[in-house]
Amino acid sequence: MYVKEVTVQNHVGLHARPATFFIQKANEFKSSIWVEKEERRVNAKSLLGVLSLGIVGGTTIKIIADGSDEQQSVEALVKLIDSGFAE
């Protein structure tokens, strides 16, 4: 299992468009991936799950992966979030 914390940089957070990019990136990997905000954990490959967390700009989340490419998946998703989704 590989875990990393990241703060969402873009001001609107993970609304529909950035969440879609996030999920598409997560689905490129074989590992099971989750997003955790406070005590809630959802499947990072589920649009409804990610949107249900209500992640706004400035929120710190954890990205957790377990599987053969866990480290690569977490690092790729952190990089995507750090980029601000090009917004």
Could you describe the 3D structure shown?
The chain contains three helices and four strands; from the N terminus they run βαββαβα. It is of the alpha+beta class and 87 residues long. It has a single domain (2-86), classed as HPr-like (Histidine-containing Protein, Chain: A, 2-Layer Sandwich). It has a four-stranded antiparallel beta sheet with strand order 1-4-2-3, with helices on one face. A hairpin with a 2-residue loop joins strand 2 and strand 3 (40-43). The longest helix has 13 residues, at 70-82. It is globular and about 35 Å long.
The low-pLDDT segments are none
CATH topology: Histidine-containing Protein, Chain: A
Number of strands: 4
Q: What integer is the average pLDDT? A: 95
**Helix-strand makeup class:** alpha+beta
CATH superfamily descriptor: HPr-like
Q: Please give the CATH class.
A: Alpha Beta
Cα Rg: 11 Å
Count the domains.
1
> Strand order within the widest sheet?
1-4-2-3
Amount of beta strand: 25-35%
Q: Gap between N and C termini, in Å? A: 31 Å
CATH architectural grouping: 2-Layer Sandwich
Helix content: 25-40%
> How do the helices and strands follow one another from N- to C-terminus?
EHEEHEH
Shape: globular
> Biggest sheet: strands, sense, closure?
4 strands, antiparallel
